[in-house]
Design a protein that fits this description.
Largest sheet of chain B: 8 strands, mixed
CATH class of the largest domain in chain A: Alpha Beta
Order of helices and strands of chain A: HEEHEEHEEHEHEHEEHEHHE
Shape of chain A: elongated
Largest sheet of chain A: 6 strands, mixed
Number of helices of chain A: 9
Radius of gyration of chain A: 22 Å
CATH architecture of the largest domain in chain A: 3-Layer(aba) Sandwich
Distance between the termini of chain B: 45 Å
Mean pLDDT of chain B: 83
Radius of gyration of chain B: 39 Å
Oligomer: heterodimer
Number of strands of chain B: 35
CATH topology of the largest domain in chain B: Rossmann fold
Strand content of chain A: 25-35%
Number of domains of chain B: 5
CATH superfamily of the largest domain in chain B: Class I glutamine amidotransferase (GATase) domain
CATH architecture of the largest domain in chain B: 3-Layer(aba) Sandwich
Number of strands of chain A: 12
Mean pLDDT of chain A: 84
Number of helices of chain B: 9
CATH topology of the largest domain in chain A: Rossmann fold
Helix content of chain A: 25-40%
Shape of chain B: elongated
Low-confidence stretches of chain A: 26-34
Number of domains of chain A: 2
Helix content of chain B: 10-25%
Structural class of chain B: alpha+beta
Strand order of the largest sheet of chain B: 17-16-18-19-25-24-23-21
CATH class of the largest domain in chain B: Alpha Beta
Distance between the termini of chain A: 31 Å
Strand order of the largest sheet of chain A: 6-5-4-7-8-11
Structural class of chain A: alpha/beta
């Protein structure tokens, strides 16, 4: 792995060490752990009563209520879980766009959230969306020790999910780090991410070259993933349309995220690498400053 | 035929073609920009105002269509025009018909000009050609022809026998003949005038400076075996020349004079000779040189017919005076039978023949002696050389004398003239010799001489027998109708009236000419002796090339002046074809748009 990427991991880890990944309030977190889950579970924290339904554990029948009202009522307790964060990193070629800092930003953000989750007492797992989603074997332990695979998948993240979706831990926290720049239904990726998730965070990592149209003139645009080309005369109007298309694409993703209860934020790689701050997530209380 | 261009500088618009090629080159030059995804650019190709997707595969066809459009527009901007009249201008060729064009033998200007015309017209089947002979007056040579084959036949009539070439008149005539659409080609041996109009006239000269010894004047006078000949020989050369001058009696082939002449540069030598015993033609000659036509002269005897005069005057004194004066003229003969001229003081002269002119001397009692002022019709033949200054003219004083007045004293006619339908003339002459000094003064013989000479010139016959080339011989014929006898030499028979004559030219060709008012004019358009048959009478006259201007070859030049350019062509002769090019450009543009829009889908 290149030194720049290693440095990005280290810098991301260092930046994330100042933050705690907050578990969204009111959300169940799953199995026994230090956090109170949003669902009923086996903890000692009483939650509510409800009428007995067939299949309920008879151990939770409140016999006192039955004695007084002759009705079977079960007591529900909060679930007590240990939270978990699944980080999915888009391993497609577009994330390694030449002349940009998307690779460093993606690596740094992955390290950032890994550390922030650790600060929150969460476990975390890194998923690499390449030729199918898989957990890189060299990405265990501390983030700065990770050996990230190459961003060389010649297809979109959706294609990677389609080939082999990640095995998310149920009721865990999911985070998707991708530029989201592919043509297709966002639900192809969002649906697996949000399935049985406690919360889903989509972080769009764009390069400055993605966020702003290129210089004017005759351009032969090369899609680094598909290697298709498009020859265009780019002028001011074309640049405006590019920005409008990007905004429409982002709104499309935001709308999809809203439908699955996910949260979406946009990060411009070069800007993030300068200050390494995620104010939008802090404002949304996804991150808390330690 | 190439079109003409109103604004050829507009061809500069063709610079748009390399500019377009440059644009295409720039347009097809791309900067490679890797992007994360083409997702965000896919809708750019649908835009029309900008961000056009470049499709290089279209370039060849669209590029060449655009090149075609630019070319058509640029050419249209130059105002291309083609000739009207089936696309070609008529050509009017003005041919110098003067005899200097034949100087030089096989290398004469005429021969060279014919070669040029053959080249000019060999491929000219598509435009009409007319020929105009520029002689002393312009003359159309034949009808319109197309191409050299027809033109060659027509040009056989280009004989170069005119004593002068009035090219300016011929040019004006050619312009009128050809109309606005015509080109004019002048073929001559002279240089053009300084004010030659540009653009429409091409002036071709084939002459060259040559030395020439020429007979430029010749005359023969006198009758009855005592004659005088006069010759002028000119050396049109910058060097001295020696030549042998010979004079022969042409009919008898008898040498009268042979003299070796040495003429200095540009010298004109005059020879005056007394000739005796030569009734027929005289032939003078010089050795052949550059121009042979002016080396030969034929002179026929000048014979003015004498008028038969009859005097019927009762007053003896006046009769004697008249007879004496008539004898002094030398132009009269005694009347035997029919008189040509009758002097009488008789009031009744109805019995005279129709061909007899009558001079009626009026001796009125109521007369006066007029001292003037006298009014004389100077255009009348009787007034030639007449001076009445100091004359006392006695005659009747009434104002009502019939006839056209010739001489008046104030408003009193003294001499009048009347011509009847048969051509007979009656002159009324008021004269009271007892009141006049007219018969004692020079005006008297002048009047009588004019009268007799006028009558003699109106007698049947030729007025002159030695003419210059280009002049006209005037023949008076008798007015009497009669059947002629058949000509003995087999020439075409004269029509049964005296209103036609037969002319036999020096070349041997015969021609029948009509006579109007008993007068026929025979154009002297060939060198040699003409024979004219009028009824039973045969007349002859000689024609000589005696023109110093034509014999002088020192001013002959060669060269070409002027061009047929669009500036010289009137607008009406050209058809602007810019609209055709614009329509073509519009069609190609429509095609281009159709291709572009189809490719855009």
């Amino acid at each position: 792995m290149s030194s720049s990427r290693r440095k990005a991991l280290l810098e991301g880890e260092r930046a994330g060490s100042r933050y705690v990944l907050a578990v969204p309030r009111g959300l169940p977190l799953g199995t026994v752990g230090p956090h109170q889950g949003a669902r009923t579970g086996s903890s000692l924290e009483f939650r509510e009563h409800r009428n007995y339904q067939p299949g309920d554990d008879l151990r939770y029948v409140d016999w006192n209520v039955y004695a007084r009202s002759d009705q079977l009522v079960v007591k529900l307790y909060h679930e007590e879980v240990t939270p978990h964060l699944d980080i999915v990193v888009d391993g497609s070629r577009s994330m390694a766009l030449a002349g940009t800092s998307k690779v460093e930003a993606a690596a740094g953000l992955a390290a950032f959230f890994a550390v922030a989750a650790e600060n929150a007492g969460m476990t975390q797992k890194l998923w690499w969306a390449g030729d199918g989603c898989a957990q890189p074997p060299a990405c265990q332990g501390r983030a700065h020790t990770w050996d990230l695979p190459a961003f060389d998948f010649a297809a979109s993240c959706a294609e990677s999910f389609a080939r082999r979706p990640p095995l998310f831990r149920p009721r865990g926290l999911r985070m998707l780090l991708s530029d989201l720049l592919w043509l297709g239904d966002p639900m192809q990726v969002l649906a697996p991410c949000a399935d049985r998730a406690t919360a889903t965070i989509v972080l769009q990592v764009l390069a400055d070259a993605d966020a702003r149209p290129p210089e004017r003139g005759n351009l032969r645009l090369l899609d680094v993933e598909s290697e298709q080309t498009l020859e265009l005369l780019v002028d001011d109007a074309a640049a405006r349309r590019y920005c409008a298309t990007l905004e429409r694409h982002e709104n499309n993703w935001r709308e999809a995220c809203r439908r699955v209860g996910a949260m979406m934020a946009v990060v411009v790689a070069e800007e993030w690498l300068e200050e390494r701050r995620l104010d939008d997530l802090v404002a949304a209380e996804v991150l808390q400053v330690m | 035929m190439l079109p003409l261009f109103t604004t050829p500088w507009a061809f500069a618009a063709l610079l748009a073609i390399p500019a377009l090629a440059g644009l295409y080159w720039l347009r097809n030059s791309f900067r490679l920009v890797p992007v994360s995804s083409l997702l965000l650019w896919l809708d750019q190709a649908e835009a029309r105002t900008s961000g056009l997707r470049v499709r290089r595969v279209q370039t060849p066809l669209l590029f060449f269509l655009e090149l075609t459009i630019l070319f058509l527009l640029a050419v249209a901007a130059t105002g291309p025009r083609l000739e009207n009249s089936q696309g070609h201008w008529p050509l009017v060729v003005v041919l110098d018909d003067s005899y200097s064009m034949s100087a030089g033998g096989d290398e004469s200007p005429k021969a060279l000009a014919l070669e040029m015309l053959a080249d000019e017209l060999r491929w000219g089947d598509e435009y009409p050609v007319r020929f105009v002979l520029a002689g002393t007056s312009p003359q159309v040579l034949g009808e319109t022809v197309h191409g050299w084959s027809a033109g060659r036949e027509l040009l056989r009539g280009w004989r170069c026998l005119s004593p002068a070439a009035r090219l300016s008149e011929a040019l004006a005539f050619a312009a009128e003949l050809g109309g606005d659409k015509s080109r004019i080609l002048v073929v001559t041996d002279q240089k053009p005038p300084d004010d030659l109009p540009a653009g429409r006239i091409v002036w071709r000269a084939f002459g060259r400076h040559q030395s020439n010894l020429a007979l430029v004047r010749a005359a023969r006078a006198g009758q009855g075996g005592q004659e005088r000949c006069f010759f002028e020989i000119a050396n049109f050369s910058a060097a001295e020349q020696t030549a042998n001058f010979q004079l022969k009696a042409a009919g008898a082939d008898r040498l009268i004079l042979s003299e070796r002449l040495t003429l200095k540069a540009n010298e004109v030598r005059r020879l005056a000779l007394q000739i005796k015993g030569v009734d027929g033609a005289l032939g003078a000659s010089l050795p052949d040189d550059a121009l042979t036509l002016d080396n030969q002269v034929v002179l026929l005897p000048e014979e003015l017919p004498k008028a038969a005069v009859e005097v019927r005057i009762k007053d003896e004194g006046l009769r004697a005076l008249v007879e004496k004066t008539l004898d002094a003229t030398g132009l009269t003969k005694k009347s035997v039978g029919r008189a040509d001229l009758l002097f009488t003081d008789d009031m009744d002269f109805a019995s005279v023949e129709a061909e007899t002119w009558v001079v009626q001397l009026l001796r009125e009692k109521d007369a006066d002696a007029f001292t003037g002022p006298f009014v004389v019709d100077r255009t009348h033949p009787l007034a030639e050389g007449l001076s009445l200054q100091g004359v006392v003219w006695g005659g009747g004083k009434t104002e009502d004398l019939p006839g056209r007045p010739v001489i008046l004293a104030g408003n009193v006619p003294l001499l009048t003239e009347v011509e009847n339908a048969a051509g007979q003339r009656l002159l009324r002459w008021r004269l009271r010799t007892d009141l006049s000094t007219l018969t004692e003064l020079p005006a008297w013989p002048v009047l009588v001489w004019n009268l007799v000479h006028w009558r003699a010139t109106e007698l049947p016959g030729l007025r002159a027998t030695n003419l210059r080339l280009g002049e006209s011989a005037v023949l008076k014929v008798a007015g009497t109708l009669r059947m002629p006898s058949p000509p003995p030499d087999g020439t075409p028979s004269v029509p049964s009236t005296m209103d036609s004559i037969v002319v036999r030219k020096p070349s041997g060709a015969s021609q029948v000419l009509n006579v109007y008012s008993r007068r026929a004019a025979i154009p002297a358009d060939d060198v040699g002796v003409y024979e004219v048959r009028s009824g039973d009478k045969l007349y002859s006259f000689a024609v000589n090339a005696l023109s110093a201007e034509e014999s002088d070859l020192s001013s002959c030049v060669s060269g070409r002046w002027g061009e047929w350019t669009e500036d010289g062509v009137p607008e009406s002769a050209l058809r602007n074809i810019a609209w055709v090019l614009l329509l073509l450009a519009l069609g190609v543009l429509t095609w281009h748009l159709a291709l572009a829009s189809r490719s855009g889908r």
